[in-house]
Amino acid sequence: MKKSPVEKTYKVPVWVDKSGMDDDELCPDCFKAVGVRSRYKLICLLGKSSKGETVGVLTGHLGLSQPTITHHLNILKSLNAVEVVERGRERVYSLNRKAHCFLECKIPY
Ligand SMILES: [Zn+2]
Questions:
Q1: Cα(31) to centroid of ligand 1, in Å?
Q2: CA of 10 to the centre of ligand 1 (A)
């Protein structure tokens, strides 16, 4: 089943390097993923990690509280941009590089 094209109505935020992107506008889902600067920073951090990161590590990198990081991660997860696996007692988050945001809208990370 082919999905109908999504309307792109949101400007790419200034903190996203749009040089590799086809458009300078984003669909609602992608804007939701990067429209908050620290959420986009999370995408970039996870993009640089091949094995994924725990909330604790991400919290240390971004200097935000754990609930804030978890909140951002849950939104990214709901957009399918981030995947989570249980590793022992830890939850490890990694970037879903095959997600629409990165394959189709080409958000850089
Ligand atoms: Zn998109």
A1: 7
A2: 10
